[in-house]
């Protein structure tokens, strides 16, 4: 019996020790679980945040660019639509069209659009003398500077004709395009849309002219459609600089 009692006593002690160890393990386990939970939560929140940031960074970027303005009738209509949508575009202005439309240029600048140069008289730069090309460009730059207080850095050469080396002589960066909408030729919203839809991709630079009602309609339709598809509209400098 005594042997049995001792055994019983040992069993009670063992059970007590086991219980104590179990209790310690449980506490340890609970805090471990808590820690794991916190770090998991942190990880999830962190990953979620990281995912959002990555998605934002990964959004394909495109640029709407408009030549030959400012136009007294249609440019402001376009600016209204872009403002409503919070979209920035790039405008390459003709020096000769600025006169009388200074307020439109001021508004473009105030609303964060990129303002570039498209020569004074819409000349083909590789067909005139270097001095003539320089004058066409600098005269337009000066007109823009007088209005915005900022000297343009970018220029779109009419007809895409750029004589090699001109950038060194006028210190400007020529900007071309990847999608020619031929908006001036067709003046047809559906045709403009289908040309863009067929060719759009990350980094696309879309060429349009803000002097037609059809262009304004097409540009704003594209703004809605391509935003919906996940594209981000940026000023063209963000696509051409490394
Ligand atoms: Zn042009």
What is this structure, in a nutshell?
The protein has 242 residues and is α/β, with parallel strands linked by helices.
Tag the structure with descriptive keywords.
about 240 residues, alpha/beta, 2 domains, two-stranded parallel ribbon, 8 strands, disordered N terminus, binds zinc ion
Walk me through what this model shows.
- This protein has 242 residues and is an alpha/beta fold.
- It folds into two domains: 1-58; 61-240, TIM Barrel, CATH 3.20.20.370.
- The chain contains ten helices and eight strands.
- Strands 1, 2, 3, 6, 7 and 8 form a six-stranded parallel sheet that branches. Strands 4-5 form a two-stranded parallel sheet.
- Helix 8 (189-199) packs parallel to helix 9.
- The longest helix is centred in the first third of the chain and has 57 residues, at 2-58.
- The radius of gyration is 33 Å and the shape is globular.
- The structure holds zinc ion.
Largest sheet, in brief, is: 6 strands, parallel
Distance between the termini: 91 Å
- DSSP strand tally: 8
Using the coordinates above, name the CATH class of the largest domain: Alpha Beta
Low-confidence stretches: 1-34
The ordered H/E elements are HEHEHHEHEHEEHHEHEH
Q: Which secondary-structure class do the elements indicate?
A: alpha/beta
The gross shape turns out to be globular
Radius of gyration: 33 Å
